[in-house]
Amino acid sequence: MRATRSWSRRRAPSSRRWERGSSPRLRPGSASSCTDVAGLRIYETAILPEWIDYNGHLRDAYYTLIVSLASDALMDRLHMDAAYRKRTSCTLYTVEMHIHYLDEVKATDTALVGVRIVGADHKRIHAAFEILRAGHTGAAAVAEVMLLHVRQRGETAASVPFPPEVQAAIAQLEAETAGLSAAGPPSRRLELSSAPRSS
Fold first, then answer.
1. 113-138 as b/e: b if 16+ CB within 10 A
2. Which domains does the chain have, with CATH numbers?
3. pLDDT band at 30 (very low <50, low <70, confident <90, very high)
4. pTM for the whole thing?
5. Alpha-carbon 198 to chain mean position
């Protein structure tokens, strides 16, 4: 298994210009971390043969693909589905991800993904995901992700606040997952930085 790594998906070259005066990055701090991620089931997938590497287990990059697909399922749950994206030109960009690889996933496994909303503000969601193997105890991987709400205009994207109905859905899911226990081990402590300024 590999050590923790950080990367972004769907990241625009000008991401640092989305916020003036503050960064949307995950930062060290004392807030909740991957230790608190809860297993509210949001996604599951079979492991495809082409995802298995020469070591006979899931290639490291595909753990991240599974988290990425789970974040799409999270968008649907939070009322940011395909219809919302088409109507508003708004979507979520992943601006940072931290992932710990904890156990091997084999070709015969089914991956189950749980999610918790660790924190949120008017433009960002700090989500924690766990990948588990159906029929097994313990997490195969834990990941923390910072998601930024943006509006796409042609080749550019700018951060925008969540509409009220999405903010309400985020708050509801955060409350639903707040008391759930973790399956994964401690990770780096991460938190939202200072709240971004309104556009």
1. bbbbbbbbbebbbbbbbbbbbeeeee
2. 26-184 (3.10.129.10)
3. very low
4. 0.76
5. 23
